[in-house]
Amino acid sequence: DIVMTQTPLSLSVTPGQPASISCKSSQSLLYSDGKTYMSWYLQKPGQPPQLLIYEVSNRLSGVPARFSGSGSGTDFTLSISRVEAEDVGVYYCKQSTQFASITFGQGTRLEIK
Amino acid sequence: QVQLQQSGPGLVQPSQTLSLTCAISGDTVSNNGVAWDWIRQSPSRGLEWLGRTYYRSKWYNDYAVSVKSRININPDTSKNQFSLQLNSVTPEDTAVYYCARMSSRRLGSWGQGTLVTVSS
Q1: A interface mutation test: which of B66, B105, B110 has the most A CBs within 10 A?
Q2: Sign of the alpha-carbon dihedral angle for A97, B85, B101, A44
Q3: With a CB-CB cutoff of 8 Å, which residues 38-97 of chain A face chain B?
Q4: Residues B10-35, buried b or exposed e (16+ Cβ, 10 A)?
Q5: pLDDT of A4-54, one tens digit each?
Q6: Is B72 exposed, middle or buried (0-12, 13-18, 19+ CB in 10 A)?
Q7: Residue B46: in which H helix or E strand, if any?
Q8: What is the rounded distance in angstroms from the CA atom of residue A93 to the CA atom of residue A97?
């Protein structure tokens, strides 16, 4: 299985300040079709995870523009340009390049200072 | 919009079978462009993908190695739903279980989650 390692595991950010989360995979997530199947999810308290970004940098419709994803190969980053109170929760990266064995990162808890 | 509604018991005895169902609205279980997954979440294991069922001219399954010997995921086309069965459960199988729809390798729709506790 591909191991997904997130850092940091927790983050405390002042509203209006930027935040970033790193996710590293144990092997390249570049698939034979030329796409990289790395996604980011946000889980708010009491809810299932919700998709934010797919294929590294594509925001799902309705996701605010302050969220962006970047990276390639084995190193990926989720960035929030200006954190808002509604952004609290746990962020997960997930790979589905290895479709028959998808794996998630451990999660990064974002709280507001 | 696709909606997934989970049902099933919240308490299962050790060594018994965990059974959950996920009813689909806004799509069909036999849609040959998507897959229907089960994922669980626990403090010790985090988010753990368990397996899926999908239709591509015939039915297929993928299962996680960690549970492969004791899991079954089956579609029910007459009720437009799919189910999870996990056999020989132990307290380590205590978790919140989610069903989800996988499309273009994205989990875009999730069920509400079911806390299943394995205890006598």
Answers
A1: B105
A2: negative
A3: 39, 41, 48-51, 54, 60, 92, 94, 96-97
A4: eebeeeeebbbbbbbeebebeeeebb
A5: 999 999 999 999 999 999 999 999 999 999 999 999 999 999 999 999 999
A6: middle
A7: strand B46-55
A8: 13
